[in-house]
Amino acid sequence: MDIKHAKDYLYWLYYQYLLITCCYVLEPWEQSMFHTIFITVFAMVVYTAYVFIPIHIHLALEFFSQLLGDQREST
């Protein structure tokens, strides 16, 4: 994949994003506000998933291991 093709593909993805979110009808300052809010919310969701999902998976595995009778003895 050459550089020009990758650049065209990124432009195409950005254009698809604009079409899906209807941002192409917004004024430039409205677009920048929308993108800022969207990126902020997306970053918060990713951070929350990074922090809390491993904890929940660990607790679920502990619960199901105790439920199935695989209890570990503490030393």
Automatic annotation (TrEMBL):
Name listed for the protein in its UniProt record: Serine palmitoyltransferase small subunit B
Listed under subunit, the entry gives: Component of the serine palmitoyltransferase (SPT) complex, which is composed of SPTLC1, SPTLC2 or SPTLC3 and SPTSSA or SPTSSB. The heterodimer consisting of SPTLC1 and SPTLC2/SPTLC3 forms the catalytic core of the enzyme, while SPTSSA or SPTSSB subunits determine substrate specificity. SPT also interacts with ORMDL proteins, especially ORMDL3, which negatively regulate SPT activity in the presence of ceramides.
Task: Mark the transmembrane ranges.
Answer: 9-27, 33-53
Q: Tell me, in one coarse class, where this protein mainly resides.
A: endoplasmic reticulum
Membrane topology classification: Multi-pass membrane protein
Annotated Gene Ontology cellular component terms: endoplasmic reticulum membrane; serine palmitoyltransferase complex
InterPro entries assigned to the protein according to its UniProt record, in alphabetical order: Ser_palmitoyltrfase_ssu-like
